[in-house]
Amino acid sequence: IFTNETYYLAVKIVPLFERKVLYLSFIENVRLNDICKRLKLQKHEVIYLRNKGIEHFKNNLKTLYKANSIKKGGDI
User: Fold this and answer.
1) Helical H runs in the chain?
2) Distance of alpha carbon 33 from alpha carbon 13, whole angstroms
3) Which of 9, 21, 34, 40 is the most exposed place for a label (fewest CB within 10 A)?
4) How far apart are CA 2 and CA 19, in angstroms?
5) DSSP character at residue 30
6) pLDDT in tens, 5-51
7) Could you give the CA distance from residue 69 to residue 72 in angstroms, rounded to a whole number?
8) Rounded distance between C-alpha atoms, residue 22 and residue 33, angstroms
9) Within its chain, how far is the Cα of 25 from the centroid?
10) 6 CB burial (10 A radius; 0-12, 13-18, 19+)
11) What is the pTM of this model?
12) How far is CA 47 from the centre of its chain?
């Protein structure tokens, strides 16, 4: 899905269930109620998983960019 390798790696290490919710929400553009039905979860659970997934993705990106910067010898 991602052409950017760093984004791909960042999303790949997001926990599986969070990644499923993110995929359904942002790639397939599935509505909240439909995600709840597909995954057999309540709305608050899906919202929590989506928020945690976004948080994990952002933290993973920061970590990967920091690692790439250090590997290349650049400043953060």
Assistant:
1) 5-12, 16-22, 32-39, 43-72
2) 26
3) 40
4) 14
5) -
6) 999 999 999 999 999 999 999 999 999 999 999 999 999 999 999 99
7) 5
8) 14
9) 11
10) middle
11) 0.84
12) 13
The tokens for 11 are: 């999303």
CB 48 within 8 A of CB 41: no
Cα 55 to chain centroid distance, Å, stands at 7
Q: Which residues contact 73 (CB under 8 A, 6 or more apart)?
A: none
Residue located via tokens 């993973």: 60
* Tokens (6 digits) for 20: 């499923």
Exposure pattern of 24-51 as b/e (b: 16+ CB <10 Å)?
Answer: bbeeeebeeeebbeeeebeeeebbebbe
